[in-house]
Amino acid sequence: MTTRLAGLLLALVLSSATTAADRPNILFCLADDWGWPHAAAYADETAETPAFDRIASEGVLFQRAYVSSPSCTPSRNSILTGQQFYRLDEGANLHSSLDPRHPNFMFLLRDAGYQIGHWRKVWGPGDPLALGYKKHPCGPPKSFAKFFRERDKSKPFCFWFGTADPHRPYEKGAGIKSGIDPAKIRVPDFYPDTPEIRSDLADYYFEVARWDRDVAAAMQQLEEAGELENTLIVITGDHGMPFPRCKGNLYDWGSRVPLAMRWGARIEPGQVVDDFVSLTDLAPTFLEAAGVAVPDEMTGRSLLPMVTSETQSAEQDRDFVVYGRERHTPAQAMPSMDGYPSRAIRTDRWLLIQNFEPDRWPTGVASGATHPIDKFADTDDGPTKQFFIEHQNDPQIAPFFELSFGKRPAVELYDCQADPDQVKNLASDPAHAATVAELRTKLMEYLEQTGDPRPENAPFDEYPYRAKYLETYLKEHGH
Question: Residue 158, Cβ neighbours under 10 Å: how many?
Answer without folding.
Answer: 26
